[in-house]
TrEMBL record:
Gene Ontology terms describing biological process: GPI anchor biosynthetic process
GO molecular function list: catalytic activity
Gene Ontology cellular-component terms listed: membrane
Annotated SUPFAM superfamilies: DNase I-like
All copies of domain Endonuclease/exonuclease/phosphatase, residue ranges: 24-238
Name of the protein in question: Endonuclease/exonuclease/phosphatase domain-containing protein
Length: 247
């Protein structure tokens, strides 16, 4: 069975400079990829100020608006909460989501981070498919601890033989996550395996830093899906990543 996945930091529905609300354009771009599973970071659950002032603000939470009629199941993990509302990670899935849990991996200070772990019912796989949507911190010490917590969760809750996909915004500009995740959980990064290095994703207009990743375990084959710069470079501060994974 081949599973197509997409990961994108939605930047709360605004373009890179926060000058234009582009959620409707983002929805069309996401739909065009036709992914089976979509990993979203910085997706808004609610925002009272924006909803009152921004034209075409959807009535539904952003993750539900993006899911529309194409992804029957979705899960949301609320991470950052503030007076106006909240945002976090989300997973959209064409497969039934059997269960999900948002794991708080915030370390210290104002940054609130989470791991959204979903278990999907994919009958053709022959067993449950585990996916984790990740958004890690800006400080390297925080990321090391968050990766340790991710490995701990995998060890406790993901069977060794189960197919596993982990994707999202790792903020790992120093490229330290590869060795840590391979050593503790046997994870391989799709773009590193196929191209020798992680993909450049930030900033989206002129990508320099390799911040976003797709890691897999127990995959027979995984290959990157090239995505065109247009329209993605106008839809977020991060470029998206997509891959086909045979499990």
């Amino acid at each position: 069975m081949t599973v197509r996945v997409l990961t994108v930091n939605t930047h709360k529905g605004f373009n890179a400079l926060n000058r234009r609300f582009i959620l409707h354009e983002l929805r069309e771009a996401v739909r065009h990829v036709s992914a089976d599973v979509v990993f979203l970071q910085e997706v808004l659950g609610t925002h009272e100020v924006h909803s009152a002032k921004v034209q075409n603000w959807p009535e539904a939470p952003h993750y539900e608006f993006l899911a529309d009629e194409m992804w029957s199941d979705f899960a949301y993990g609320r991470n950052a909460v503030y007076p106006e509302g909240h945002h976090g990670n989300a997973v959209l899935s064409k497969f039934p989501i059997l269960r999900h849990e948002n794991c708080d991996v915030s370390v210290e200070g104002p940054e609130k981070r989470g791991l959204l772990h979903c278990v999907l019912d994919a009958p053709a796989v022959g067993q449950e498919l585990h996916v984790v949507c990740v958004h890690l911190g800006l400080r390297e010490a925080h990321r090391r601890e968050q990766l340790r917590l991710l490995c701990q969760r995998i060890d406790r809750f993901v069977p060794p033989e189960a197919p596993l996909v982990i994707a999202g915004d790792f903020n790992d500009w120093r490229l330290q996550a590869h060795a840590q995740l391979h050593g503790c959980a046997g994870l391989r990064e799709v773009f590193v395996e196929a191209q020798g290095q992680a993909a450049r994703t930030f900033p989206a207009r002129w990508p320099l830093l390799r911040l976003d990743r797709i890691y897999v375990r127990n995959a027979k084959l995984a290959r990157p899906i090239p995505l065109p710069p247009h329209p993605w470079r106008h839809l977020s501060d991060h470029a998206p990543l997509a891959a086909e994974i045979m499990v």
